[in-house]
Amino acid sequence: DAPCGGINDESWVAKFDDVQECCKEKLAYLCPESGGDIPCEACTDADISAWTTTTTTGPTTTTAGPNTTLFYELDGKCVQNCEGDAPCGGINDDVSVNKYADVKQCCDDQLSDVCRNGQVPCAQCTDADISAWSIIATTRITTTVSPTSQGLSSFDASEPRFEWYVDWDSGGICVQNCNGSPPCGGLMNESWVEKFQDVKTCCSTRLYYKCPDPDVPCPACTNADILVWISGMEP
Fold it and tell me: Of 77, 100, 72, 87, nearest to 194 (Cα)?
C-alpha cells in the first residue's frame, strides 16, 4: 500500500534516505509554502507528521509545519495560518479560503482598499511585520529606459504600480514592464497579469525553484542586473 511504490533496483534512479530529502531534491516546487524544505501532501502519500514541529516561546505556543507560512483574510485582517499570537489567526484548512504566500499578496488581493494610496501592505490590513515592504515603499528608485518607437523614455518605479512580471513565452523569466532592450519585456497592461515591485520579488514568488537560494534572484530567472541582491545590498 501507499506510500510504497514498488522495489526499484535501477542504478540510474536516484534514491533518498527519507521522504523529506526526496521531496526537497525532486519536488520542492510542489511545496512552495516552505520553500521545499518541509514535505507536503502534494509531493507524497507518506506520513509527514514527523516534519511538523512545535516551537514554544514564553507562554505562547506556535505550531509550525505545512501551510503555516501562508496568509489568509479573517475579519478584515490578513492573518497567518498558524496557532498563537498575532499575526496568527488559527489553522484554516478550508480549501475554499484563499491562501497567500506572504502578507503583501494577501493584503493586495483582499484588503488593498484599506491602505492609503494603495500602498500595501499597511498596518490597517494586518498585524504582521511589514517593515520589509515599508522600507521598499519609502525608497525612491528611478529607472531610465532607452526611447523606443512607442515613445517611452522613462518611468518612475516609485509610482504605486508594479514593474515586473513573468514572461512565460520566453521560457519563464522575470522581465520589466517596459519597452526596450532586456530586461524590458514589453508593456503588459492586462489586469490579469501579476505584477511585482522588483525583480527579486518576482523571482522569489514565481520562479524560486530556478535558483539555488529561492530568496535571491539568479540568471536562470531573469536577464536583469541582479548584482545588488547577490551582494546582499538590497535597494
Answer: 100
Q: pLDDT of 82-140, one tens digit each?
A: 888 889 999 888 888 899 888 888 888 888 788 765 567 888 889 988 877 654 444 33
Strands (E), 32-187: 53-57, 60-64, 71-74, 77-80, 142-144, 154-156, 164-167, 173-176
Cβ–Cβ < 8 Å for 43, 30: yes
Q: What is the C-alpha separation between 31 and 41, in angstroms, rounded?
A: 8
Say if pTM beats, i.e. exceeds, 0.85. no
**Residue found under cell 496568527:** 88
Distance CA 1, CA 100 (A): 34
User: Nine-digit cell at 48?
Assistant: 509527514
The Cα-based distances of 127 to 56, 64, 89, 114 in angstroms read 20, 18, 10, 14
Closest listed residue to residue 221, CA positions, set 205, 208, 231: 208
